[in-house]
Design goal:
The protein has 4 helices and 9 strands; from the N terminus they run E-E-H-H-E-H-E-E-E-E-H-E-E. It is of the alpha/beta class. The strands form 2 sheets. The protein has a 7-stranded mixed β-sheet, sandwiched between helices. The protein has a two-stranded antiparallel ribbon with strand order 1-2. It starts with 7 loop residues before the first strand and ends with a strand. It is found in: Cytoplasm.
Length: 170
């Protein structure tokens, strides 16, 4: 099964000039969803993972599934104003603006091995900010997993030193 056939391009979203990679066709097909989840699980190395961090909002789809399958905890990283407890924040630039992400101050314990998951690696700003949050809390990022990598945006350059895996590359 070719998972790329389940990714829909939406031109000029969320702003003019951006081609949004819509994963909802993949999510609504049970076989594609299962294959994507199993393929993402295959990326996880033999390294022990204590927490899987999912990035707001589409990273929340696969990250809890991965965490459950490998016996790890799930940690949400959210946009401003969405987490109810004390948080740490990190601001960053993305391909169409700027954003700030937050993580609960008690979400990662010193020495935790962390897998970071998001749906798309674009310019790398989001993933880098998440890795910085994890490290500020004393965690160690063992891998960054993505459903899609937009290689032409060179986001992997911002993640040098972190193992990166992605199912689909554009």
């Amino acid at each position: 099964m070719d998972l790329s056939t389940y990714i829909r391009d939406i031109p000029n979203f969320p702003k003019s000039g951006v081609v949004f990679k819509d994963i909802t066709p993949l999510l609504k097909d049970p076989k594609a969803l299962t294959l994507a989840t199993e393929s993402l699980l295959d990326f996880i190395t033999d390294a022990k993972v204590d927490k899987v961090v999912g990035v707001d909002s589409r990273g929340f789809i696969f990250a809890p599934l991965l965490a459950q399958k490998i016996g790890a905890g799930f940690v949400p990283v959210r946009k401003s104003g969405k987490l109810p407890f004390d948080t740490l924040s990190e601001s960053y630039d993305l391909e169409y603006g700027a954003e700030t992400l937050h993580i609960h101050s008690d979400a990662i314990e010193k020495g935790d091995k962390v897998l970071v998951h998001d749906d798309v690696l674009a310019t790398g700003g989001t993933a880098k900010a998440v890795c910085q949050l994890v490290e500020r809390l004393g965690g160690e990022v063992v891998q960054c997993n993505f459903l899609i990598q937009l290689t032409f945006l060179n986001g992997a350059d911002k993640l040098k030193g972190y193992p990166i895996r992605s199912l689909l590359q554009y």
